[in-house]
């Protein structure tokens, strides 16, 4: 969970800097890519964790 929150925070900061600074639009793209990576990482961890629970 800490890794997800850290990646989301980095994505938000890069997005804000990319929008605010003139000529640094690529930071916005990098921020979106980091956000997507965080979501994919969380989805993979969540799906892997749910498969290990024993059926009662």
Structural summary, described in words:
- The protein has one domain.
- Helix 1 runs antiparallel to helix 2 (25-50).
- Helices cover 80% and strands 0% of the residues.
- With 56 residues, it is mainly α.
Structure, briefly:
This is Nitrogen fixation-related uncharacterized protein. With 56 residues, this protein is mostly helical.
Descriptive key words:
56 residues, mainly alpha, 2 helices, 80% helix
Mean pLDDT: 85
Q: Supply Rg.
A: 15 Å
Strand content: under 5%
- How many structural domains does the protein architecture include? 1
Q: Alpha-carbon distance between the termini?
A: 27 Å
Q: Helical element count?
A: 2
Overall SS class: mainly alpha
User: What is the helix fraction of residues, given as a range?
Assistant: over 70%
Largest sheet properties: none
Helix and strand sequence: HH
User: What is the 3D form?
Assistant: rod-shaped
Q: Which blocks of ≥5 consecutive residues have pLDDT under 50?
A: none
Number of strands: 0
Describe the SSE topology.
Layout: H1 2-20, H2 25-50
């Amino acid at each position: 969970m800490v890794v997800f929150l850290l990646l989301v925070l980095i994505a938000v900061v890069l997005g804000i800097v990319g929008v605010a600074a003139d000529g640094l639009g690529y930071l916005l793209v990098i921020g979106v890519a980091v956000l997507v990576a965080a979501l994919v990482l969380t989805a993979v961890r969540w799906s892997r964790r749910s498969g290990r629970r024993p059926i009662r």
